[in-house]
Amino acid sequence: MYTNPSPHYSQTGLRGLTTVTDPGKQEFLLAAVESNASRIVRIDPSTGAETIDLDLAHLLDTAWGTRVSYVIATYNDMTRLPRTSGGDDLLIGLEAFIPPASPRPPGHTVHDVVHGLEAGAWFLIRHPGGQYELRQVTARFPKIGQNLVAARTFAVSPFPAEAKVVYVGGYDANDAPAHDTAGIARGIIDPAR
């Protein structure tokens, strides 16, 4: 049985519980912990023991040159993106809050909702073996005049002619009034890496 070792840091617990088998390893569970100590964890299904697969705040602080205070990762699920060999990649949407006193990263869109929402529709690709790549949905939506804000869900195209196409849907109003804000983008992510 799994028990969060730092429950006072988490508001909603685990998100996106997914089974994973990395090459040469036993099957395990992977989940995101939403909090101001957000992380992606590997959980041993037989013991419930947690191992940190990725410290989300550290990754984002380093990549963006700022300090994030709270991260939501894996809104709905971790979507499998089949590779040509060696297991599947996982697509993981995320959203982060940047405290008002922290630097605003150049080129980033930060909305003053709640604490300062980084609204760039960022996501992770988890490659087999636990290697992570940070990416951004760059599609623009003229009607709403912005991007998706948050990458909430992914779907690998089921259409034979779209072998590398992924659809992403998103937006998060974060308790603010919103109208005509949801969107779906279509893009190509090459699973042959």
What does this structure look like?
With 193 residues, the chain is mainly beta. The protein has a domain at 58-188. The protein has one helix and 13 strands; from the N terminus they run E-E-E-E-H-E-E-E-E-E-E-E-E-E. The strands form three sheets. Strands 5, 6, 7, 8, 9 and 10 form a six-stranded antiparallel sheet that branches. Strands 1-2-3-4 form a four-stranded antiparallel sheet. A three-stranded antiparallel sheet has the order 11-12-13, with no helix packed on it. The model has no long low-confidence stretch (mean pLDDT 82).
Outline the secondary-structure elements.
Elements: E1 10-21, E2 27-35, E3 39-43, E4 50-55, H1 56-64, E5 70-73, E6 79-82, E7 88-97, E8 110-111, E9 117-127, E10 131-136, E11 151-156, E12 165-170, E13 183-188
Antiparallel strand pairs: 1-2, 2-3, 3-4, 5-7, 6-7, 7-9, 8-9, 9-10, 11-12, 12-13
Provide a compact summary of the structure:
With 193 residues, the protein is mainly beta. It has one helix at residues 56-64; strands at residues 10-21, 27-35, 39-43, 50-55, 70-73, 79-82, 88-97, 110-111, 117-127, 131-136, 151-156, 165-170, 183-188.
What is the CA–CA distance across the termini? 35 Å
What would the principal axes of the Cα set say about the shape?
Answer: globular
What's the overall average pLDDT, rounded? 82
Run of helices and strands:
EEEEHEEEEEEEEE
Determine Rg (CA atoms, Å).
17 Å
Largest sheet, strands/sense/barrel: 6 strands, antiparallel
**If helices are DSSP runs of H or I spanning 4 or more residues, what is the number of helices?**
1
Q: Roughly what percent helix?
A: under 10%
What is the strand tally? 13
Contiguous uncertain segments of 5+ residues: none
Structural class: mainly beta
Strand content: over 45%
